[in-house]
Amino acid sequence: MLTDLSWLAPGKTFPPSSEKARIDEYEKNNRLFMTELPAEWAEAFRSISARLGKKLSGIDTIFNYQQLISKKTADFVCGEPPTIETEQDTDRIVRTLDRQEFFTKLYELFIDVSRFGNAVIKYRGKSTSTVSPMFWFPVVDPTDLKQILQHVIAYPAAPDKDGKMTRLYAEIHVRGSFTERFYSFDGSTIGALLDEKQHSTGLDDFAVQVLTNVTSSSSIFGLSDYTIINSLVEKLIWRFSCIDNVLDKHAEPSMSGPQSAMTYDEKRGIWYLDLGKYFARADSSSPDLHYVTWDGNLESSFKEAEMLLNQLYILSEMGQAFADAGGADSSGTALKLRLVSPRIKAARLAKLNNSRVKNIICTLCKLNNINIDYDSLILHWNDGLPQDESEQAQIHTQLVSGGLMSAYSSMKKRGLTDEQVEAELEQIRREQSEQKPIDLGVINYGGA
What we know:
By secondary structure, this protein is α+β, with helices and mostly antiparallel strands. The protein has 3 domains: 1-253 and 297-386, no CATH class; 255-291, no CATH class; 389-434. Helices cover 41% and strands 19% of the residues. The protein has 12 helices and 14 strands. It has helices at 17-33, 39-52, 65-79, 90-99, 102-116, 230-251, 299-315, 332-338, 340-367, 389-401, 407-413, 418-435; strands at 83-85, 118-124, 127-131, 136-141, 144-159, 165-174, 177-185, 190-200, 208-212, 255-256, 262-265, 270-273, 290-291, 378-380. A hairpin with a 5-residue loop joins strand 5 (144-159) and strand 6. It is flat.
């Protein structure tokens, strides 16, 4: 990890050697996400083929479980945006976030959390933009490697006519400000400093914020969801490629029959089978002309593939969410029970990043002249599963009738705005008033 800015200077290699393994891993994961075979996998397949004496014609089928994991994870965490609850003007806050496309960016951030282990977002004026972690270089306290002192965003820029990058752009962020620098660059080595500007952000915190996957005590970088399953997916791709080769090889029809069925071509000097001819058999004991059948004996290969897939379901924490969401006829409870594992994973990521997302929302509101109290802001994370209306209605009815929830809160949890809730409550009061029987009373005329 980086503990100072000595690496960002003329004559230094970019990216710094201490970060190269991390950047290479990010690039590999990005290729997997984009359904591209990593170079090291292709080389491993060629090596296995050479060792087995096989000819590798190419890998045609790539199982992109990695992209599916990232999309499913983001779906469960924020495919349905978290519900915002605050003592301030909630509707105005939601409208502002919607105009900023914040929840779309939040989905992208959790895609990066899954595939890279970290996701980076920075404030730009009154809005935000996402940054690839491949361009993020945190500088940490040498006495506390979990404490970030500076966030550096750096990447090559200004390509020449041949596409070669000639500049290195860098932003050095501290709390309340950042420094913008331009260096000359030859593709691997940082050149002279060309320009430097200071900018104030007016914030009490960094203008760069980072979401994270699971971390360990030895590193600030989160763990990618891909690392634990890459070897399984690589094995699956190789195994099914071998099965494809066997099936393709034996898909071509082959025939067996008597020598008399062959015709000699004197011009080319070869024997060939003319299927347009009639082949007479002397008697029933003469060999017949027939297609050759074969037994590929692929049962063991399919058993291995099944075992690998089961391990993939377990280690990815996705289970059958890969292939089946439970069916339209499943109740909400049954569906949630079937998807316990991915929901637990999503809840873990939401808990790890809840405070950071709250901080981002508060800062974004501040930049748009909306005062919001961090302590009063509550995010209700949803799992993105379709709601069972009958079950939800029953639960809310029991809570309201039991005095554990107000009718107002129940309607808010249904996604209604403050104005819609007030209108709905007023309509309910009006209908109840109209249905109330008229009190005729008893008139006493003085009789006994």
